[in-house]
Amino acid sequence: MAWEEDENRIYHVVMNHEEQYSIWPADRDIPAGWQEAGKTGPKAECLAYIKEVWTDMRPLSVRKSQEERRRKQLEGEK
Predict the structure, then answer these.
(1) What is the mean pLDDT for each group of 10 consecutive residues in the chain (78 residues)?
(2) Domains in the chain: boundaries
(3) pTM to 2 decimal places
């Protein structure tokens, strides 16, 4: 059976440098560029955790760029 189909498997919630989330089987090494993000458990629990904490789907670099642009616009209005 493929690991994606095993409902009893334990997962880590992982996050990359852009603060994007995913799940990864706990019995496998976490891939380069990803780190544990504070939750380990069954797939459904991990996905519920991601839904709770990942409220802005934009990558971190996009959020920062948009915030900087907004800040410059506000400074220009003064």
Answers:
(1) 70 97 98 97 97 91 86 79
(2) 3-76
(3) 0.76
